[in-house]
Amino acid sequence: MLYSLKGILREILPPNKLILEVNFLAWEILIPLNLVEILRENFIGKEIQLFVVPILRKNEYLELYGFLEREERELFLKLNALSKVGPKLALNMLSIFSPETLRGIIYDRKIEELAKIPGVGVKKAERLYVELKGLFSKLSKKGLTLPIERERILSEAKASLISLGFKAQEAEEVLLKVYDERDSLEELIKKALKSLAPSFIEERC
């Protein structure tokens, strides 16, 4: 899958599209609204790199979504995979919240903050919170207080396993069993998959 594009920012189109020229090809890319003024004021005519996600729409045309930070791209993918979200709402979330801010909102159950997302009212914010709670669920090991960065890695590992088809409780139990504070996100996921592999293979045979 297309991961990133580096090229010359030629134009910003309202409300939140840009034209990126890459090797004589011009790509139209949707971006979070909070990037529009930053890019317009600082990067027109300059080279930038965007982390991108291509999505094939139902009427069979390709949309590209772009982000300045790798973490935003990864969160967009996870949000888009949720049943009650999708690319438009996922982009709206990242237009007003950074990944870390959104994670804090879910941890602290600040549902009223979710209602500030364009296209989300109070009632929808409640339903959205339930979806996001499963994505950002805190993992904690008995008798161990985890630093915020460790909590983030565990939560992202859990979300990755859920996206592969494992149940949330199953993923959490295995992650806490194999967890080592020295693990990177990739190492933690590999260890969890190694432990889950037998059941993973059996279910798909």
Descriptive overview:
The structure is a single chain. The chain has 205 residues and is α+β, with helices and mostly antiparallel strands. The protein folds into 3 domains: 4-67, OB fold (Dihydrolipoamide Acetyltransferase, E2P) (Beta Barrel), CATH 2.40.50; 70-136, DNA polymerase, domain 1 (Orthogonal Bundle), CATH 1.10.150; 148-203, Helicase, Ruva Protein, domain 3. It is 50% helix and 19% strand. It is built from 9 helices and 5 strands. Helix 2 (70-80) packs across helix 3 (87-96). It is globular, with a radius of gyration of 19 Å. The chain starts with a strand and ends with a helix. The model has no long low-confidence stretch (mean pLDDT 85).
Descriptors for this entry?
205 residues, alpha+beta, OB fold (Dihydrolipoamide Acetyltransferase, E2P), DNA polymerase, domain 1, Helicase, Ruva Protein, domain 3, 5-stranded mixed beta barrel, 5 strands, 19% strand
- Using only C-alpha atoms, the radius of gyration works out to 19 Å
CATH superfamily of the largest domain: 5' to 3' exonuclease, C-terminal subdomain
Tell me about the largest β-sheet: 5 strands, mixed, barrel
CATH architecture of the largest domain: Orthogonal Bundle
Query: Could you tell me the number of beta strands?
Result: 5
CATH topology value of the largest domain = DNA polymerase, domain 1
Helical proportion, percent range: 40-55%
What is the CATH class of the largest domain? Mainly Alpha
Run of helices and strands: EEEHEEHHHHHHHH
Instruction: Describe the global form.
Output: globular
Strand order of the largest sheet: 1-2-3-5-4
Low-confidence stretches: none
